[in-house]
Structure formats: C-alpha cells, structure tokens
Amino acid sequence: MLADKLPPNPRETANCISALMFCFALPILFKGRKTTLGPNDLYDVLSEHKAEKLGEKLFEAWQDESKKKDLKGGNPKNGMLRVILKVFGWELIATGFVIGGLELGLRRV
Who contacts 19 (Cβ-Cβ below 8 Å, separation ≥6)? Predict the structure, then answer.
C-alpha cells in the first residue's frame, strides 16, 4: 500500500483532551482487539514527523553551526550533539522531566 493512500492520522484533528487521554486511538485499538491489524489499517504519518520537515530543521541547524565555527575560527569538527540539542533540546528535556517524574512517582506508590 502506498503511503499516499493511507487515511489521515486522527491525532492531527484530535482536541487537547483527546490527545492527552489517547482517545483518538480507541477505534484502532478496538479493531486490533477483534481482528489482526494489517497494512491497510495504518494511518498516515503526522505532518511534524515527516522526514522532509525534520531533515530540513537539522540541515538548517547544521548550517548555522558551521557558519558559527567558521566565523569564530574554531575547531572544524561540528558537534552533532549541539545540533540535535538545538533542534530537539527543549522537547527532549521536557520529556525527560515528565518521564523522570512519573518514574519517581510510580515507584513510591
């Protein structure tokens, strides 16, 4: 099955409560409980998870990092870790705090 023919992802149109409680995923969960899911049951990728968009963000951050290194006359080796943190940093940090809080909270219960 071609990716162009996949139905749109229900997460894109889900409201914030549905997204927090994963209610948008209930139909496919119920369907998977009754029958085995196949390739026709897949949804299209979320627009923010498409490779073109993420690749473009990484490329722009890499170019900025290279320009900064060239202007400062620093080490020609660019730090990929710095580029990844620039693109995904706050998202990774916030996710880490949430998961860490959940881990600590659930272990004490």
Answer: 11
Structure tokens at 88: 């995904």
Asked if 29 contacts 43 with a C-beta cutoff of 8 angstroms, the reply is: no
| Cα 52 from chain centroid (whole Å) | 13
Joined together, the tokens standing for residue 77 give 């080796």
Residue 49: its pLDDT value, please? Answer: 77
d(CA 13, CA 19): 9
pLDDT range class, residue 32, cuts 50, 70, 90: very high
CA distances (Å), origin 43, targets 4, 12, 39, 46, 95: 10, 11, 9, 9, 24
